[in-house]
């Protein structure tokens, strides 16, 4: 029995290799279904995974370096999970899978474009309780008790579900989506050059975000910098020691960037993330001005165009702002709109941000700051009331030809660096330095699986009249295994989320 247990992992690996080799032959067939070409025009976010590209590279990797079999066996293969899922789910695991998100009357919907080789097995995977079938325009619409809807036309299959568990498709909006996906004369690939480039670029995993999607772009937004770009695409390809990044950002203004150098920024001890870019003075100021009071508009004339933005920590206490809310009038009992004080970020702690701008005529700027009655001079820096946070300040300091502006007076915590475009983010530091907002978050952080990614680096590559092209890499905490194994392992780790959702 012990010998069988020792041999079984190698049998699993052998099975994987056979699958990969067969997959290699399978992916060479002609007239292969291209799911990227049917993504509808209403998609706001697209996540593209290419299992056949991973399998093909995996095959060549093992072919030229068979000793990597030891590394595969050394990775934590869940044998019980493999045995449990041996029957499969009807989905072709070696075809590209596209997940996209759109909105239906402000309700977010997730769509997944799949290649299905065993329909009934797939239907049972979605819901074992059966489904309601409707024939429609040479295709089929299947609606399931759990709220999932499947649209089929020939070999094309699209799975849809609302993010809101209480929302479900009816016959009318299911047919509407069928028409948008299968009958529309134009699809996303036809109207967005950025998306067309994205789906044709070689990659293992990729993500595309529409310029019309405001929610996602603001998640990682540093002073709303991403609002200066249109459609955005990021492609990831696993290499030997890290994952290679290739990104393309559509330029809303062709003259936004000024090319200086290809320097890549590095983080100081206190910095968690940093972005550096060079643009025209007006645009440089506009990036920061969205977080400044209008009374400081005079500093625009001192900007040279080079700015550096850094994330240096988190607030440990709540911050508050004013917001228009609906209240019940105590006298009339009518619903009225009123200004109220609310916590700015009730779910997570607000990050501490610091920006540095290269300036001209620093002495003149200091004099203007001293003469401004809204600016308070304190020690060797200035402060002014925050334009958004109540009873809070912004802090300014002029040192040489650098103007520091931050949410705290920790000016030494940032190392100013300037380049055409460069971004660096330290994942472990971001998690380690986060102060839990409540007991639930504290428990959540303890339960959070260890993220194997150490840092993400992105830097300027080329600029065309319509887009900015970036390169970069995702580095792991350990380089014991080839990154294609680590990437596959991370995907498999969270494979249960999809089944749990649907």
How does this model look, in words?
The protein has a domain at 193-476. Helix content is 28%, strand content 32%. The chain has helices spanning 2-26, 51-64, 68-74, 79-84, 119-126, 171-183, 188-191, 193-200, 214-219, 281-289, 362-371, 427-432, 439-447, 483-493, 495-501; strands at 45-49, 97-104, 107-114, 132-136, 139-143, 149-153, 156-162, 205-209, 229-238, 242-251, 273-278, 303-314, 320-328, 335-343, 351-359, 376-378, 381-385, 393-399, 402-406, 421-426, 453-463, 467-476. The strands form two sheets. It has a 20-stranded antiparallel sheet, with helices on both faces. Strands 13-14 form a two-stranded antiparallel sheet. A hairpin with a 3-residue loop joins strand 21 and strand 22 (467-476). Mean pLDDT is 81; it is low at 1-31 and 219-223.
């Amino acid at each position: 029995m012990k010998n069988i247990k020792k041999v079984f992992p190698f049998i699993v690996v052998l099975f994987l290799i056979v699958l990969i080799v067969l997959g290699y032959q399978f992916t060479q067939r002609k007239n292969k279904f291209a799911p990227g070409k049917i993504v509808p025009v209403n998609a706001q976010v697209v996540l593209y995974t290419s299992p056949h590209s991973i399998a093909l590279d995996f095959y060549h990797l093992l072919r030229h370096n068979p000793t990597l079999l030891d590394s595969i066996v050394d990775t934590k293969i869940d044998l019980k999970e493999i045995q449990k899922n041996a029957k499969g789910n009807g989905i072709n695991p070696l075809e590209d899978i596209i997940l996209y998100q759109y909105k239906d009357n402000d309700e977010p919907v997730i769509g997944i474009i799949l290649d299905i080789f065993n329909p009934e097995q797939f239907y049972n995977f979605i819901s074992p309780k059966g489904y309601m079938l409707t024939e429609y325009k040479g295709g089929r619409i299947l609606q399931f008790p759990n709220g999932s809807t499947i649209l089929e036309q020939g070999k094309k299959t699209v799975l849809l579900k609302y993010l809101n568990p209480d929302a479900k498709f009816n016959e009318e909006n299911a047919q509407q989506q069928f028409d948008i996906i299968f009958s529309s004369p134009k699809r996303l690939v036809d109207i967005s050059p950025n998306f067309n480039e994205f789906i044709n670029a070689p990659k293992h995993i990729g993500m595309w975000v529409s310029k019309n999607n405001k929610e996602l772009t603001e998640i990682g937004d540093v002073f709303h910098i991403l609002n200066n770009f249109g459609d955005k695409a990021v492609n990831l390809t696993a290499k030997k020691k890290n994952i290679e990044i290739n990104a393309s950002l559509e330029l809303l203004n062709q003259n936004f960037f000024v090319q200086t150098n290809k320097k890549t920024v590095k983080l100081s001890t206190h910095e968690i993330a940093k972005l550096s870019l060079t643009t025209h003075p007006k645009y440089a100021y506009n990036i920061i001005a969205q977080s400044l009071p209008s009374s400081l508009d005079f500093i625009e004339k001192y900007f040279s165009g080079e700015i550096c933005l850094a994330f240096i920590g988190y607030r440990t206490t709540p911050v508050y702002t004013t917001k228009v809310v609906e209240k019940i009038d105590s006298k009339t009992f009518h619903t009225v709109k009123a200004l109220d004080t609310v916590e700015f970020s009730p779910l997570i702690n607000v990050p501490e941000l610091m920006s540095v701008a290269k300036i001209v005529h620093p002495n003149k700027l200091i004099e203007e700051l001293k003469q401004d009655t809204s600016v308070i001079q304190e020690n060797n820096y200035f402060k002014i009331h925050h334009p958004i946070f109540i009873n809070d300040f912004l802090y300014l300091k002029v040192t040489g030809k650098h103007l520091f502006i931050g949410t705290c007076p920790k000016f030494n915590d940032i190392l100013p660096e300037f380049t055409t475009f460069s971004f660096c983010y330290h994942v472990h530091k971001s998690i380690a330095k986060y102060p839990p907002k409540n007991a639930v978050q504290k428990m959540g952080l303890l339960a959070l699986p260890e993220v194997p990614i150490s840092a993400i680096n992105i830097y300027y590559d080329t600029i065309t009249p319509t887009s900015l092209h970036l390169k970069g890499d995702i580095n792991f905490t350990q380089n014991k295994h080839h990154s294609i194994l680590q990437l596959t392992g991370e995907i498999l780790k969270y494979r249960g989320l999809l089944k749990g959702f649907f």
